[in-house]
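S2.1 Query sequence (Xanthine/uracil/vitamin C permease)
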Amino acid sequence: MEMETTPPPQLNPSPSPLARLNLFVATSRVGKRFKLAERNTTFTTELRAGTATFLTMAYILAVNASILSDSGGTCSVSDCVPLCSDPTLAPSNCSGSPSLTLIQPDSACNVSYQSALGAVFIEGLIFLLISAIGLRAKLAKLVPKPVRISSSAGIGLFLAFIGLQKDQGIGLIGYSSSTLVTLGACPTSSRASLAPVVTSANGTVSLLPGGTVSGDILCLHHRMQSPTFWLGVVGFVIIAYCLVKNIKGAMIYGIVFVTAVSWFRHSNVTIFPHTPAGDSSYKYFKKVIDVHGQYFAFMSDASAIVVGSLLGTSPVTAFIESSTGIREGGRTGLTALTVAGYFLLAFFFTPLLASIPAWAVGPPLILVGVLMMRSVVEIKWDDMREAIPAFVTLILMPLTYSIAYGLIGGIGTYIVLHLWDWGVGALREFGIVKGVKSNSEVVNTQVSRDETTKPFDV
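Output structure tokens follow.
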């Protein structure tokens, strides 16, 4: 008779240091404040998401340096939003709005910077007022469903379009005088600026290569031969492979790899070229490296515009690059708070952060655009009253380079296509008409006929 042997009890392995840290934060006042357990997230996940968001936003430090000098508005506002509410959005000073042009004292609009900042201040007060009375949240709920759904995909296309350009991306898209955009990705030596030339005979203006008005936006030859473009493609492949394998921190790995390679100065992909500006940036960069050792969200957003205008900055708004942090698992305001901490450190490490090249930020923006396109399956494409406004919203955002214009176009189209239905409904309500059918009734009747009609048997 064989004796039955019971297997020895297996001891549970001790939790890792990161697991203990996440458990400690989740049970602390910070974890309860941001509801980490309720939202199925952890402290380290929020830190990773905040890091990814900041790395894709860091270009603003160099782009708006002349406007934001010594204002300090960015870090304080990013800090205010997550503390007052609990979103994952990170606000900063926008560079694409028309107000950025108005702030330039030598602008062709002949508007002084005092007047421009005053306009920004009044704008912020209006936003603050409608946020305080709750009107801003109600207005957001009035956005039609097809426009609301397609806006996510439209923003994704907008992000991908930014990531494909030269100034803030890998440079695959270039300028064309005939079609506006074309295939680019040519090296710096093959690019040229455009200069406006006025014809005295008829007063027409032509854009010809030469001058320094537009920057190096015209690709003359050697397309698809830019070393920085191919380095960006490598970063794209790294991020895409990590996403396929569901590896956490995919965005960070791609950005860090491309940035680290771009730090080597004696290469064709360096962010520090052998120019006076490149020499100065590299000297400062080396010096830093060598050193040892919803309601309240709307209120915070509106207050940021007011405070930013008083500090002399362009409008402060939530950046669409926040979607990269959401993709990395960000669920609470700790993500935005992490971004705020990074911006605060940027006071002391600006050369390091500004050295993140555009071709390192482009790949994650493109892949975020891919991920945001999934919402188009929720649009009822067989209903033209919803499909047309959704498509207008989706296509206008990247082509007009503005989310606002896309929303305006989509909402306007939605209203126009529904005016007949609303008018018929109002007339029926007052008993003025009885036999007129609305568009929705006509469509439903046609669909029912198609379903009941059967082909003849042969």
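The chain has three domains: 38-171+272-355, 172-225, 379-433. Residues 38-171+272-355 form one domain.
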